[in-house]
Amino acid sequence: MSKRNKEITKAFYDRVNANHYDNYTVKEDTTLMEFLTKTFSGSSRTKVKQILTQRMVYVDHQITTRYDYPLKKGQLVQILKKRNIHEFRNDYVKIIYEDAFLIVVEKKNGIITNAPEGAHQNSVKRILDEYVKRKSRSISVHTVHRLDRETSGLMIFAKRRDVQQILTDHWHEIVVDRRYIAVAEGLVEKNSDTIMSWLTDNRMFVTTSSPVDNGGKQAITHYNVIKRGEDVTMLDVKLDTGRKNQIRVHAQDIGHPIVGDYKYGAQTDPISRIALHAYKLDFYHPITNEYLCFSTPIPENFESLFKK
Fold this sequence. Notes:
With about 300 residues, the chain is α+β, with helices and mostly antiparallel strands. It has helices at about 5-15, 30-40, 45-55, 125-135, 160-170, 170-175, 245-255, 300-305; strands at about 20-25, 30, 55-60, 60-65, 70, 75-80, 95-100, 100-105, 140-145, 150-160, 175-185, 190-200, 205-210, 215-230, 230-240, 275-285, 290-295. The strands form three sheets. Strands 7, 8, 9, 10, 11, 12, 13, 14, 15, 16 and 17 form an eleven-stranded mixed beta sheet that branches. The protein has a four-stranded antiparallel beta sheet with strand order 1-6-3-4, with no helix packed on it. The termini are far apart.
């Protein structure tokens, strides 16, 4: 997206947000707490902290809850006009980051990204739609990429169609680093390697892999061994392409399917899930161009596979 188009898009959102937020420009360097205390001079510090904990404060379009957050002269502070009395809590979805344009979440295993149209099935998108509509009926979230039901980890959702379009059209330019933790069956011999093949879906919706171009989609996966246990190996996996079931199929290709992945050759399921987690996501913000980095810990039940 050109710089001019980004400026137009940002200005559009500023006008939309004016209907839902009180806007303030920072006049001097300070902290967020001091700024809010001066702005709401009749309110106690406890009251101001409640505004922060209820996720009502945005700094440069990013929700900010830290009372000691440093502010610079010229920054934009927005206060949600209508208090969101429903704090976001969900067993399957955790919000990691939110601003006026997108939401980054950590998805738990056991839930799909997006249900088919017309299906009465729970999904990450449905949960987030219900959350954002409590703030404004005009807002909905839009799917940018997907994780399998049994895969956990970091995901991006857009709050507007045009932001979704930017992310999908320029995914490989915007997303700098996306990595997974996988626990594979057996002891992977090579400390690092690159797997390349062409993937296609058969009539049973199972993805198959070919070492030569068969008209399918090319898939490239890099891995590094983190550690080896008695009969399992933990891998750090990075994708050059984001094909359906890519990591799962490539793990099967090297003879070390992912723990719990019966669909693609696993023989064991000791933690009652597929041992695959999207733990790292670094990207340039599609509107502000800010470089954002997110990571989550290795799931505890993955670590339990290496404790004997």
